[in-house]
Amino acid sequence: MKIRAKRSLGQNFLIDNNIINKIVNIGKISNKDSILEVGPGTGNLTNQILKKKPKKIFAVEKDFDLIKLLNDKFEKNIQIINEDILKLNTETITKDKLIVFGNLPYNISTQILINWITNKNKNLFFKKLILMFQKEVADRILAKENSKNYGRLSIISNWRLDISKEFDISSNCFYPKPKINSTLLSFTPKKNFFEINNPKKLEYITRIFFNQKRKMIKKPLKQIFGNYEKIVKKLSINIDQRPQNLSPSTYFRLTEEYEKKLNN
């Protein structure tokens, strides 16, 4: 069965066996682990994961043509979930903490990650994420304050997760060949993180600030808090700074103050 990559689904299939093996090894899979693979494509990575003999493999695939191919290739060895990953309730897949592998479609990769992080459930459904991103997106996730790539994505990602850059992946490792290179990142949940009642409020706060990232922070502070002077004093914020100069912890505390304001 000949499969053509569908541009509408952002499909680029990973075909380099050396890279595939390196990715699988990062998972340190044992026979007690349950795996979730997002976008298994033609099953190249799935095949290598199976060799590690995990307890269970769940594969989320939206493309009906690929589902037929995967069923033919793996039969009962994996459980295929025909669903859009953006709509899937990951909490219903299994009670096990999952190791998640994903060659994510570039057009929705950040949305997937943010959805998983800002889930209200304090116990995340995974114990490790091993995800591939467009290199420039990965650079934004990894960015620190006072750098040009620092923004909403780095702040929200670093709230609940420890992040490691594993390696860059050349566009030559894919078919069809994309125009850009990729980066593999791994994420593990933090044992201790700043408590925010509604993570969507962190999204809101960072959106307001970074919509005007070149402006001084006085304007977004005023927009969010009105009488912002007390907040500035309490959090020791210099209002001559720009959004990229504030640390992630400052944004977490601003979110906490905003939630207090809403509850008063």
At the first level of CATH, the class of the largest domain is: Alpha Beta
Shape: elongated
Summed up, the domain count is: 2
Low-confidence stretches: 5-10
SS field, number of helical segments: 10
CATH superfamily descriptor of the largest domain: Vaccinia Virus protein VP39
Q: From the alpha-carbon coordinates, what is the Rg to the nearest angstrom?
A: 20 Å
Helix content: 25-40%
Provide key terms for this protein:
single chain; 264 residues; alpha/beta; Rossmann fold; Helicase, Ruva Protein, domain 3; two-stranded antiparallel ribbon; 10 helices; 9 strands; 37% helix
Please describe what this structure looks like:
By secondary structure, this protein is α/β, with parallel strands linked by helices. The chain has 2 domains: 7-189, Vaccinia Virus protein VP39 (Rossmann fold); 199-263, Helicase, Ruva Protein, domain 3 (Orthogonal Bundle), CATH 1.10.8. It is 37% helix and 19% strand. It contains 10 helices and 9 strands. It has helices spanning 17-26, 44-51, 64-74, 109-117, 135-142, 152-160, 199-210, 218-225, 229-234, 248-263; strands at 13-14, 34-38, 56-60, 79-81, 98-103, 126-134, 161-169, 174-175, 182-189. The strands form 2 sheets. The protein has a 7-stranded mixed β-sheet, with helices on both faces. Strand 2 (34-38), helix 2 and strand 3 (56-60) form a beta-alpha-beta unit. Helix 7 crosses helix 10 (248-263). The chain starts with 12 loop residues before the first strand and ends with a helix. Mean pLDDT is 91; it is low at 5-10.
